[in-house]
Each structure stands twice: as structure tokens, then as C-alpha cells.
Model the fold of this input.
Amino acid sequence: MSQQGPQDKATPQAAQKPAAQSQARPQAAAAPQAAKPAPGAAKPPAPAAQQAAKPQAPQPVILPPPPPVDVGTVAVVELLDAIVKLKRSGLLGMISYLADKAEDSFLSAATDPALMRLMALLASVSYGVSRVPPDDIALAQNSVQDLTSCAVTALGRVDITEERRYGALGMGYRLRDPDVGTSLWILLQIAKGLGRCVRERNKSK
Done:
């Protein structure tokens, strides 16, 4: 019993080797399983080339500033517009004729006594209008425009080929017409204002 051979000493070492090998095998088998991803784990992000391009917001359009307006260009445009209006109204032809006949026109105007008297009367009218207050000028301008338009319209509607004569009874009947009464009222108002103005001017002298 006290003697042990070499085989008895090698028996524990031989028994430890299979145990170590058996422990190494489960670890080697578990290594490939650890390398596989879990079924519920998140997938790694795809490369940037595979990702869908996100739509970008449109950039605001910046308009260039308007070009500077030349005063000379605006003046030329207005001048051309005025020339076109003069051409359509016929005044441009009259001005051209007067320019061609300027010497003859001035000579005839200087030697014509009737024209000189007319010019003197127009100068007197202009001087008289200049003495009227501005408020009265504005009111008279509006009244003259309305009266001129109404007078020309009435003159265009008059049939001068049809002759009619009215006696005293006919005149009395016509005076009942409201349009005739309005016309007479305007004439009477003008006559009243004219007489008052003359009376005030005579008192101031």
C-alpha cells in the first residue's frame, strides 16, 4: 500500500485534462453565438448613399433692385405723349402752319385794325378777370363749364327748320315749363349779380 507506481501518479493529471477540454468546448461553441445579433436588436444604420434624400425647402427668390429712372427719359416720354395729343386734336397742324407763315401772320396782325381792337378787348377782359377774387374765379369756372356744356347740348337739339311763332298766350304757356323757368332763373340771377356789381363799383369811385 505504501508503494505507488508511476501509473498511479499520472492518474489525477489525466483526469484533469478531460475536464479542462470539456470546459473549453462550451466556451468555443458560445463564441459564434455571441457574434450573431439578437433577433430583437436594432439594425445598424444604412450608408448615406442608400438613405432617401430629404426634400429641401425652396430658397426665397431675391429680385434685383429696379433700375434708376432717368429724368431725361421721363421728360422725353411726356413730350412725345403731348405731341401725340396735339396731333390728334389738330393743333399740331395749326402750329405748323403758323410757323411756316409766321412772318405773314405777324405782318397781317400788325396791320389789321379789327384784330388790334380785338386784342385790346381781350387785354381788358384779362385785366378785369385778374381783379376777381380767387374763390369767385373757381366758382365762375365751374359755372361756365356747366353752362357751356348745357348750351351746346341745347343748341344741338334745336330744330331750326321748323318755324314756330308764339303769342302772349303761347309765351305764358311756355313759361309754365320747368326747364324754361330754370333758364330764366339763371338769366335773372346773372342779371341781378351784374347789376349789383356795377352799383358797387359806381359807389367805390
Observations:
- Helices lie at 6-35, 71-89, 91-100, 102-111, 113-130, 134-157, 168-175, 178-204.
- The CA atoms of residues 82 and 111 lie 34 Å apart.
- The chain has eight helices and no strands.
